[in-house]
Design a protein that fits this description.
single chain; four-stranded antiparallel sheet; five-stranded antiparallel sheet; alpha+beta; 9 strands
Length: about 160
């Protein structure tokens, strides 16, 4: 693994480690469920059927780039690759303590911050969107609050 990392650094495929990577998290899927119904389109109908909560919940899947997945700062003992969870929570040498991520929902210049819940070694998370306005298009990002590093944006229309 060490030789692979050295080779990728030499080729410019990944950046030098030591700071929290920016724009290395990409949303693969965003699904909003309410009372067992998909509010994100018919492709999520089956997924939402067993989610019988009476509030709007976001289920998200992300992918992380090589500056996270291959970065020793974000790989914990017993894991092969870095994860979104570690990008959001692990301290690295050049930053203040206690990193934390929040979801940013931006619409027409207004930003609403939302906490989310993920598990260790995972690139998936959930969040309650009960307090967000309906019939609104949002630009969604994950922001690590101590460094300001952020994900790539995704669009979400909340019906």
């Amino acid at each position: 693994m060490k030789n692979l990392l050295i080779g990728l650094l030499a080729l410019g495929s990944i950046s030098a480690f030591g700071s929290r990577p920016n724009l290395e998290v990409d949303f693969s899927a965003l699904c909003v469920c309410n009372n067992g119904l998909s509010l994100s389109g018919p492709q999520y109908k089956e997924f939402c059927q067993d989610k019988k909560y009476s509030h709007f919940d976001l289920f998200a899947t992300t992918s992380v780039g090589p500056n996270i997945s291959l970065n020793p700062d974000f790989i914990t003992e017993g894991e092969q690759f870095g994860s979104l969870y570690n990008w959001c929570t692990k301290n690295i040498a050049d930053e203040t303590l206690n990193p934390k991520c929040k979801l940013s929902f931006k619409s027409k210049g207004n930003v609403v911050w939302v906490d989310f819940y993920g598990s260790k070694a995972s690139n998936n998370f959930t969040a309650s969107l009960a307090h967000l306005p309906r019939n609104t298009k949002f630009e969604v990002r994950l922001i690590e609050t101590t460094s300001g590093a952020k994900s790539k944006p995704a669009l979400l229309f909340l019906r």
